[in-house]
Design goal:
Largest sheet: none
Number of strands: 0
Shape: globular
Strand content: under 5%
Distance between the termini: 26 Å
Helix content: over 70%
Structural class: mainly alpha
Oligomer: single chain
Number of helices: 5
């Protein structure tokens, strides 16, 4: 159980890092296209990176839970990238949908074009993050936390056999 929690937390942190990078790049593009915002340019980049990092953390946590439920006993080599990317896109879309529901219930109007573009952006981020992490996991050599198909470690076998470990 602790391994799954640790893996989910690490996944959320990786998505958070990706979100921070994406936020900084987005801030740079906005600065080049629209012009520098008033005030400190460093504060603008920091704000964008932190906001996107928060979005990435929550999306990564949602993805970890959904992935754990859908692909509980799946082997990494059996997973298809488009399915995992679709799950990641759905997890990424949870945040803007939640924000829109919160805005509407509080009486704030959400422009449809802004909502649609933000949802698409978050789905693209989620799908790309999920597909990238799957490729990294599939490329990991056996023995680096990844096991061969059909291999059961002595610890897992002991759990299955009621605590007996055969030497």
């Amino acid at each position: 159980m602790l391994k799954k929690l640790r893996a989910g937390l690490m996944n959320a942190l990786l998505w958070s890092f990706g979100g921070a990078v994406w936020g900084a790049v987005t801030a740079m593009v906005v600065t080049v296209v629209v012009g520098a915002p008033p005030g400190s340019l460093f504060a603008f980049f920091k704000m964008a990176a932190l906001q996107f990092a928060q979005l990435g953390f929550v999306s990564g946590a949602v993805f970890s839970v959904a992935f754990g439920l859908v692909y509980r006993n799946a082997d990494f080599d059996a997973l298809r990238m488009w399915r995992v990317a679709g799950l990641g896109a759905a997890a990424g879309s949870v945040i803007p949908v939640g924000l829109a529901i919160a805005s509407v219930t509080s009486g704030v109007a959400v422009p449809l074009l802004s909502f649609a573009s933000f949802t698409g952006f978050c789905a693209l981020f989620g799908g790309g993050s999920a597909a990238g992490l799957l490729k990294v996991a599939q490329a990991a050599p056996v023995g680096s936390g990844r096991v061969e198909r059909g291999y059961i470690s002595d610890t897992d076998r002991a759990l299955v056999d009621g605590g007996r470990v055969d030497a």
